Amino acid sequence: MPMKTLARERDAADILRRVETLRADAVRRWGRMSPHQMVCHLMDGCRMLTAERASPAVATRLPKPAMRWIALYLPMHWPPGIQTTPDLDQTVGGTQPFDFAADLAALTTELRRIATDPGCRFAAEHPVFGTMSRSAWYRWAYLHTDHHLRQFGL
């Protein structure tokens, strides 16, 4: 089975369907984010991917290429409890929730744009994984969104 990626139409459609079923009162299975904070967190991640939001590099225990390979290409789900960078944490420097329906609509629009617009600009670097190719960003976008949707049982 091929690895899932936002670049593949079927995988993008699945992610969008799951995002669109998220409810403001969904109960989390782990972590501390509310559904609305998670929507804003995913939107901040999209903005990081498209270089619209800066996210400074962070120190990692392993070299960044090894971190990237483990996170993006090992056949496993990301585990609960992974810490995000402060600038993408809604309780620190991330975008604050405002209107759930509007924020959710903005997220679905942005995910759709990333998945379908060949002219969409992608950042050169990820704060944890370092230099990222376009295909690595597509894989990351799928995995990051999937991880947080699973956090809410979707």
Helix and strand arrangement:
Blueprint: H1 9-20, H2 35-49, H3 64-73, H4 100-116, E1 125-126, E2 130-131, H5 134-151
Antiparallel strand pairs: 1-2
Helix pairs in contact: 1-4, 1-5, 2-4, 2-5
Protein model, in words:
With 154 residues, the protein is an all-alpha fold. It has one domain. The chain is built from 5 helices and 2 strands, in the order H-H-H-H-E-E-H. The chain has helices spanning 9-20, 35-49, 64-73, 100-116, 134-151; strands spanning 125-126, 130-131. Strands 1-2 form a two-stranded antiparallel ribbon. It is globular and about 40 Å long.
In total, how many beta strands? 2
Would you identify the regions where 5 or more consecutive residues have pLDDT less than 50?
none
Biggest β-sheet: strands ordered side by side in the sheet: 1-2
**Distance between the first and last residues' Cα:** 21 Å
Radius of gyration: 14 Å
Shape: globular
Q: Please identify the structural class as seen in this structure.
A: mainly alpha
**Quick one: biggest sheet?**
2 strands, antiparallel
Helix content estimate:
40-55%
Please tell me the overall pLDDT: 96
Number of separate helices? 5
Number of domains: 1
- Tell me the β content: under 5%
Could you spell the SSE succession in H and E letters? HHHHEEH
